[in-house]
Automatic annotation (TrEMBL):
Protein name per UniProt: ELMO3 protein
Lineage summary: Eukaryota, Metazoa, Chordata, Craniata, Vertebrata
Function: Involved in cytoskeletal rearrangements required for phagocytosis of apoptotic cells and cell motility. Acts in association with DOCK1 and CRK. Was initially proposed to be required in complex with DOCK1 to activate Rac Rho small GTPases. May enhance the guanine nucleotide exchange factor (GEF) activity of DOCK1.
Domain of life: Eukaryota
InterPro entries cross-referenced by the UniProt entry: ARM-like, ARM-type_fold, ELMO_ARM, ELMO_dom, ELMO_domain-containing, PH-like_dom_sf, PH_domain
GO biological process: actin filament organization; apoptotic process; cell motility; phagocytosis
ELMO domain sequence ranges: 267-440
Amino acid sequence: WSLPNAERYALQYADGRQTYITESNRGEIKNGSILRLTTSPDQEAERLYSGIQSNNSDVKTDSLKKLASLSQDITFAQEFINRNGLKQIFYIVEEGNDTGEMLAHTLKAFMELMEHDFVSWETLSAAFIKKIVSYVNINAVDASVQQLSLSILENMVPTSRLLFELVKKEVTLDRLLTHLQVTNAQLQLKAMALLIALLLAATDAERRDMMDYLREKNIRQFIHKNIIHSSEPLGDEMAHYLYVLQSVSLNLCERRMRTSMDPYSQEQRELLQSLRQTAFESESEAPASNFSTERRRSLCAKEFRKLGFTNNSNPAEDLRRAPPGLLALDNMVYFSRHTPNAYSRFVLENSSREDKHECPFARSSIQLTLILCEILHVGEPCSETAQAFYPMFFGQDHFFEELFCICIQLVNKTWKEMRATQEDFDKVLQVVREQITRTLSLKPTSLELFKTRVNALNYSEILKLRQTERLHQEETLAVPVLELRERLKPELLELIRQQRLLHLCEGTLFRKISSRRRQDKLWYCRLSPNQKVLHYGDVEEGVHSPPIESLPEKIPVADMKMLLVGKECPHTKEKSSGKQNKDVLELAFSIVYDMEEYCLNFIAPTRYEFCLWTDGLNVLLGKEMTSERTQTDLDVLLSMELKLRLLDLENISIPDTPPPIPKPPSNLNFCYDFSHVEQ
């Protein structure tokens, strides 16, 4: 455009972040982007650098506002920092007494400039940091200034140990808790962000102390009531901070989880003995003192075996595996002390069962603790993006232990439902893991609700869910597949009808039952090849498939009126009791023919023959096939046919609704005309 002094101008996006166009990013310009001509970044930086030093407060405020906006751009930020602009910002903060709009713009500009990592956080002066800290610690400061100050401190904490210690000393946990209790959601969020940054930057010992202090101050109850159950929906950022707080809390269990039991530790041995005493003291406490050492040792071993320890002579060996280490012992002791009735019931109920059917309390507790550690990711570093916290975690003190108490009782319940033996131990724990993970995925808001739901999800429910999921995986429950299934049914039912009629044409050997129930005479019945006549007659023993001409009696299909089965048959109405009569009832059927005057009575040799003959006769009468065999055969044929039809669609997900058919084109003049010979 032949502008004079072209270097003073630059192009800039008109929308969005209004970034400057430079040689490095010009390739990213998309078609349709609107650009505007503006003064170059160095000219703008120079102008604003002068503007923020102005004595006119309006000019100064406007310059700082523009600076806060433009500082997001890396090209401008570099130009401004090169002019020593940060020094001027430090001066405004350190020397100024303003706590309103001007200060907010200054801090915003500082934040944006620091985002580009041109300058290290460690270069900040002590006076500047103290000023920022003072904005957090004083109530009479604008909320936007407090938010920005908290953000600055949050960014400072992870950069160096020195800055962490300084912020931790100057901004007390009490002060952060005060900010958490305000109604301003943004201020609450920034206070939580700084708290999380401090927790993540602390050493293990410092973190433990901080968490203990927060527990004393009832932060859990406060979060549960005022943040999780507040009227405002929970944002993604706050959800992430709550996930981190939950993760940090649960990771306090890591040390015990990774520590094996020391058999020489008096304290640990006493904890182990307390488990035995709580369960069995009432029945063995008095006489035990009179026993010899040997007898007492064998009694203890027997009781530890009843408790479900694998190594009953030295139960400490069971707790040598880490993880779950001492955490499993802590959980068992917590269960025995806080729910002694449930604990005693568990142990005594199982010690009175047969050996192979008893559910081992200690072995189950050790494995369950490991499962809970895996599900709750104890000992794993926090994810930087995850938001999956459990609302019930903040609704309960001693969450891990209380969850264990519910789940160990669930183990016993599931064990009984599965009628498990010692060989099924892993299978039971696998089902329990599934019960816990499925219930946790529903995000219950309290442990009580978790307990109700996890107990409702019994073993038979788990089996049903697995079956449904398998069908979904095979896509047999997808809507288009169900429609295809319905379409295939008539064709396959016809196939079953033909098979039944062919079976009648082959015929079957039946036994005659006289009034004395003597099964001595045989007779044969078969359908003619043209399916118009039923031929039957007596046969000798050893004849398996007599020719149709040798069967003298016949009934035309046209004369058949109805089919009777079971109790309705005339030959079963004679009074008789006993098992044999019941068997006969299940296999009896009769054909009523010739103006309903006569009956031909059958007793099928097997249930299979009964199903085939009753189905075949129903087909001849023009009725539905009603036997259970029909449904089984139909299911098998449908399943096979569907699998064959869906072979080409393997690993392709079938949508529930068909894709929309596009509208017909406005004209059909797009066909190529082959009638013209190309020249």
